[in-house]
Specification:
alpha+beta, Thiol Ester Dehydrase, Chain A
């Protein structure tokens, strides 16, 4: 049996741990502590008026990338993360193609992880998100 490529294995992991990613058919193309990239395809059922990708979908993609990046940076003894604050600036509309979100850690601490995520449509920056993730520990 052939080994599963890393991006397929990570896509499966992302979709299993965050079921919304499965609903939105989000794919993982990179998952390392320094950078996580997720992507999704534009589809009419994910749009608002005039065929624009819904802002909530863009935010879900960014939040998922940020959460996955934070997970890759968990301190010893932590079990996961949860978004406790998120701010998104929308800079452009998406009406076709693939949208990618690349998250990078700004701060990795014992109780919080701060992540910045850039969302691109091709080379064009369409949104930027900064979020704080709470580090979860066993009770």
């Amino acid at each position: 049996m052939d080994a599963v490529p890393a991006d397929e294995a990570m896509t499966r992991f992302i979709r299993e741990t965050m079921p919304l990613c499965d609903t939105l058919s989000i794919r993982c193309t990179r998952h390392e502590p320094d950078s996580t990239t997720l992507e999704l395809d534009w589809a009419p059922e994910l749009c608002t008026a005039a065929g624009m990708l819904h802002g909530g979908v863009v935010m879900a993609l960014a939040d998922s990338a940020g959460g996955a990046c934070a997970f890759a940076n968990l301190p010893a003894g932590a079990t996961g993360t949860s978004t406790i604050e998120s701010k998104t600036n929308f800079l452009g509309a998406v009406r076709e193609g693939v949208v990618s979100a690349t998250a990078r850690p700004l701060h990795v601490g014992g109780s919080t992880i701060v992540v910045e995520t850039e969302v691109h449509h091709g080379e064009r920056l369409v949104a930027k998100t900064t979020q704080t993730q709470a580090v979860l520990r066993p009770r």
